[in-house]
Write a structure and sequence with these properties.
With about 675 residues, this protein is of the alpha+beta class. It is built from 17 helices and 20 strands. The longest helix is centred in the C-terminal third of the chain and has 32 residues.
Length: about 675
């Protein structure tokens, strides 16, 4: 039986009341009044969030969604007013063995939601006086992070993802335990470049989060895994939560299988920057974590944070934040958490993704409600991305509907503002100094306008796959028509210089692409150059065969003949090296194990060969051009010699700007 059929037959809610004694329904009722179970919804205020209603809603929502998205399983936990309201499992933890998801037993990998545990540990040490959020982090390290423009980085900048590090892909996720290294060794061997001034630009960083975990390890004197178990998991009764890799033997039978592709079971994913994403936990474990944060750092009489410290994490002061890093009124980073405000309600949370597991956690701070959901597969064509977002928004619309209305910018002004947004933009979470920067050339984001002059971002799709439609509700602030997400721009001296959206603005922004690397000209030029090189090489044997057939002379001799042949060989080599780069990058990113140093030798060899071929190719093409014009060859030969030289220069420029000759295996 196929995976889809198995999920269809098993996707019925598996509820669990397997709670620790301090969280049992009976004892929780003593600590906080239970939500009314039969209260009607308030007029215009949505339905009452009670167990019967949420269970019925989830049981109707998720089974069909899992089935149509080809997602094997999911776990959901919802807390309210100091107790677990519901915890439910859907589908399979293991398709082949027909093991259903149990929210109190089945372990999921919440990915970057793990960071919230790390940030909690950091704030514990701040509270203890061992860490300062605004001190140079080199004070706490046994290696040095170089300054950028004379400025160090601080823990506050790390927690708000504004330390300025470029994206690092190597050793983030792999499968072979032999590749695991101590946290300090991992960090010292993979320091990413700082590509933005500290505090100015949100750029999400797993490496920086791992650095924060290492700092906790150093100032506490405890290994990170031990620290979080002793100071966070144990006080909260999170008995099955762990950052340990591989899993402790007692937990292995309860680990959900991840399915990176539908029907294909993956091995246990190992996270290199462990504090950034290595957590394994049950739905009930995560419910306890949510309750602690919703209750100011305390659960069942055990406190993991002081109330003021927890409040600081959840709503950090704006006077400590570089204003250039913000795009009001969009969501912003708090200290580790980021805002996911919806329908006028204050919400903070985090998302998490490994290759197989996909998770979200949201805390409705003033409503004392938490929502956690995790899936063990991206599903068919990445269906989980749409489902995860839709579940959160639909939950909010049902129980916390919007009470306000948007404004509206007049049509003429809206058209002018939309036109100011047009152009190519680059994501701030990107690689700059390694060969993976070349992927950014393909990933530049286009903003344009439609026939009505309305804003269009073709790459941003609605749930149904159509481009999102945007309505300007305030100057340079747009909301998705019939949706929740907002898009806003920062204007400096009458020009739009940066923009983002609610769903990513806390940790990613878009800046204009510099002209020198704009895909609008560089991609066509590169494609044309590759075609010229390939034709130059392939036409060589064809022309030889034609001349032999008709006994026609080549028309060049001596030095010109040498240059003619060398040009063809160089053209073939340049085309070949470009093909080799495309093949290598495709292979590396097609399987996570290939991003763990497996191809380092080939990568270095290709950079050395590429440098010789690309630089030598320009020299040979220039030599051939000079001889072609000196000898007075036919106009077609002279014109083609110009084309070959220009193509060689474009390829060399591309290789230089996108680090194909950097002689490094860091990426």
């Amino acid at each position: 039986m196929g995976a889809v059929a198995l999920v269809a037959s098993a996707a019925i809610g598996q509820s669990s009341d397997r709670l620790a004694p301090s969280l049992s329904p009976t004892e929780a009722a003593k600590a906080a009044p239970a939500p009314a179970r039969t209260a009607p919804p308030l007029p215009g205020a949505g339905r009452a969030l009670v167990k019967e209603d949420i269970d019925t809603w989830l049981d109707g929502y998720l089974p069909y969604a899992l089935h149509t998205g080809d997602i094997p399983g999911a776990v959901v936990a919802i807390v309210k007013d100091g107790q677990v309201l519901t915890a439910r499992g859907y589908g399979y933890a293991d398709v082949a063995k027909h093991i259903p998801v149990d929210p109190g037993r089945t372990l999921f990998r919440p990915g970057s939601v793990s960071k919230l545990v790390t940030w909690t540990a950091v704030m514990q040490q701040v509270e203890a006086g061992k860490l300062d959020l605004d001190t140079d982090v080199n004070r706490y390290l046994d290696f040095r992070i170089p300054p950028r423009n004379g400025q160090p980085i601080t823990l506050r900048q790390i927690m708000t993802h504004t330390a300025g590090f470029e994206e690092a892909a190597k050793d983030v996720i792999f499968y072979d335990p032999r590749h695991l290294r101590p946290l300090g060794d991992f960090l010292k061997g993979s320091v990413p470049a700082r590509v933005y001034d500290a505090g100015t630009t949100p750029a999400y960083s797993n490496w920086a989060t791992a650095l924060a975990g290492y700092i906790v390890e150093r100032v506490s004197g405890e290994p990170f895994d031990d620290y979080v178990e002793r100071h966070i998991f144990a006080p909260l009764g999170m008995k099955d939560a762990t950052f340990r890799q591989p899993l402790p033997a007692r937990l292995v039978p309860n680990m959900a299988v991840g399915y990176r592709k539908p029907g294909e079971a993956d091995k246990f994913e190992l996270i290199g920057p462990a504090p950034a994403g290595a957590l394994s936990a049950t739905g009930i474990d995560m419910a306890k974590f949510m309750l602690a944060h919703l209750q100011g750092g305390e659960l069942g009489g055990n406190r993991i944070l002081g109330e003021r410290t927890a409040a600081l994490m959840h709503d950090s002061p704006l006077d400590k934040v570089n204003p250039y890093s913000l795009i009001p009124p969009l969501n912003r980073m708090e200290l580790g958490f980021f805002e996911t405000n919806v329908n006028g309600h204050e919400v903070i949370g985090h998302l998490g993704d490994t290759a197989a597991f996909h998770t979200s956690l949201h805390l409705f701070i003033n409503d004392h409600v938490g929502l956690y959901v995790s899936f063990n597969s991206p599903g068919r064509q990445g269906a989980v991305g749409t489902l995860r977002n839709a579940l959160f928004e639909d939950f909010a619309d049902r129980y916390f509907p919007n009470q306000g209305t948007d404004g509206r910018v007049d049509e003429r002004t809206a058209r002018e503002h939309a036109k100011m947004m047009t152009g190519l933009w680059e994501n701030s979470r990107r690689s700059v100094t390694s060969f993976t920067a070349a992927l950014g050339l393909l990933g530049q984001t286009e903003v344009t306008v439609d026939a009505k002059g309305e804003l269009v971002v073709p790459s941003l799709k609605a749930a149904g796959g159509r481009p999102r439609q945007w309505v300007e509700i305030a100057p340079f602030v747009w909301r998705e028509r019939d949706g929740h997400d907002r898009l806003a721009a920062k204007v400096v001296d009458g020009k739009v210089v940066r923009w983002s959206m609610d769903e990513m603005s806390p940790f990613i922004v878009f800046d204009r692409v510099p002209a020198g690397v704009s895909a609008s000209w560089l991609k066509p030029a590169l494609y044309a150059s590759f075609a010229i090189m390939l034709l130059t090489f392939l036409w060589w044997p064809v022309s030889w065969a034609i001349r032999r057939r008709y006994n026609a002379p080549l028309g060049v001799s001596g030095q010109s003949l040498k240059a003619y042949r060398a040009t063809r060989i160089a053209a073939g080599l340049e085309a070949g090296v470009l093909i080799a780069w495309m093949t290598l990058i495709t292979a590396m990113f097609s399987n996570l194990k290939n991003l763990a140093g497996r191809f380092d030798t080939l990568l270095m060899a290709l950079q050395v060969i590429g440098a010789i071929v690309f630089i030598g190719g320009v020299g040979i093409a220039g030599w051939n051009l000079w001889l072609a014009w000196r000898d007075g060859r036919r106009w077609t030969g002279r014109l083609w010699s110009v084309a070959v030289l220009l193509a060689s220069l474009v390829i060399l420029y591309f290789a230089f700007r996108f680090n194909l000759m950097s002689m490094s295996t860091r990426y």
